[in-house]
Amino acid sequence: MKSILIYYFSGTGNTKEISRLLVEELESEGCTVKLYTMEDQLKSQKEINLEVYDLIGLAYPIYGFGTPGIVSRIVEGFPEGGGKNLFIYKTGADFISINHNASTELIEVLEKRGYNVFYDRIIAMASNWLVAYDDRLVKQLYNSAIGKVKHMSREILNLKRRRYKTGHFLKKLSMGISHLEKTYGSSYFVKSLRTNQKCNHCEICVKRCPNQNILFVNENPVFGDNCLWCMRCVYTCPQKAIFSKGMNFSILKNGYDLKRIVENEDIGSDYITEETGGYFKHFYNYLSDESL
Ligand SMILES: Cc1cc2nc3c(=O)[nH]c(=O)nc-3n(C[C@H](O)[C@H](O)[C@H](O)COP(=O)(O)O)c2cc1C
Ligand code: SF4
Ligand code: SF4
Q1: Does domain 3-169 have CATH number 3.40.50.360?
Q2: Closest Cα to atom 18, ligand 1: which residue?
Q3: With contact defined as beta carbons under 8 Å apart, do 87 and 19 qualify?
Q4: How far, in Å, from the CA of 195 to the mean position of ligand 2?
Q5: Pairing mode, if any, of strands 85-92 and 116-124?
Q6: What residue owns the CA closest to ligand 2's atom 4?
Q7: Domain ranges of the chain
Q8: Atom of ligand 2 nearest to the CA of 204
Q9: 3-class SS at 199?
Q10: Ligand with an atom nearest the CA of residue 233
């Protein structure tokens, strides 16, 4: 049976949970799966050896219609591909076409390095940024993702080719926005971060930052220039002491905690129905068809 290695990055838990479900599914098919976070791999500075694996997976959230910077750093450490099969799955707050180029540049790099990127898929989860989804929609997307992950596992094991294709304009647009997000967006965001008097100097944010971008200076967290805009420090500070001066609109008022919503049995999962109108209408078929 197949031996699989997956590197994932997850700022706030969505991609982590999808990866956990996928590993469960692949193992139930008799595969051996190693699941590592990109941040642990980078911290360890260990050489990446992919030789013993039949399949390699990369997983991450979509940021600004593109790929978080940490992903290219992992791929830089990959050896030459020699035709090895590689799959990608991403979580995003939507599956709309402007997201379809989220891996285009990365795939180009991987293909140049000799990898056969046969699979690229978006699994829509809740938004952790800008727009808060209703708790029922968070749960509904999660429940639908469970079926999609089963479907994805089957497709990956069958080496089914699944790739997005969009027109040239959309490709250029999403790549341009992704570049702005990675440079100016994350830089403005991190410069705007502050802590308030609720901070009890626990250092948790320092330890949790995936990019080691928070230092502890005079017992206070100080944010550096190397931010992924992942939101983890903001949402997981136990004191809710981190805020943004100027870009608070990008932070969800009530934070983001997938586990709290998924485990709360009082929250229903019936937000989108056949009668739903407005923006979320396009989710209806997506939610009920595991192949989408
Ligand atoms: C800085 C930033 C940019 C984002 N940009 C997009 C985007 O372009 N498209 C999208 O669908 N979701 C976007 N999102 C939402 C996340 O991709 C989505 O909530 C994802 O599932 C979060 O995954 P995680 O919990 O594993 O970090 C963005 C989130 C952040 C923090
Ligand atoms: S996690 Fe919160 S309370 Fe702890 S040091 Fe960071 S900002 Fe302060
Ligand atoms: S500073 Fe905060 S938002 Fe930026 S990478 Fe670190 S944890 Fe993520």
Answers
A1: yes
A2: 92
A3: no
A4: 8
A5: parallel
A6: 202
A7: 3-169, 190-257
A8: 1
A9: coil
A10: 3
How far away, in angstroms, is 257 Cα from ligand 2 center?
17
Which segments of the chain are extended strands (E)? 3-8, 32-37, 55-61, 85-92, 116-124, 193-195, 214-217, 220-223, 242-244
Ligand 3 touching residue 223 (CB < 6 A): yes
pLDDT in tens, the chain (292 residues): 899 999 999 999 999 999 999 999 999 999 999 999 999 999 999 999 999 999 999 999 999 999 999 999 999 999 999 999 999 999 999 999 999 999 999 999 999 999 999 999 999 999 999 999 999 999 999 999 999 999 999 999 999 999 998 889 989 998 888 888 888 889 999 999 999 999 999 999 999 999 999 999 999 999 999 999 999 999 999 999 999 999 999 999 999 999 999 999 999 999 999 999 899 999 999 999 999 9
What residue's CA is closest to ligand 1, atom 22?
61
Measured at the alpha carbon of residue 286, what is the angle toward residues 120 and 258, in degrees to the nearest 5? 80
User: What's the CATH fold of domain 190-257?
Assistant: Alpha-Beta Plaits (3.30.70)
Residues with CB under 6 A from ligand 1: 10-16, 61-65, 91-94, 99, 125-129, 229, 231
Contact 6, 38 (CB under 8 A): no
* Gap from CA of 246 to ligand 1 centroid (Å): 20
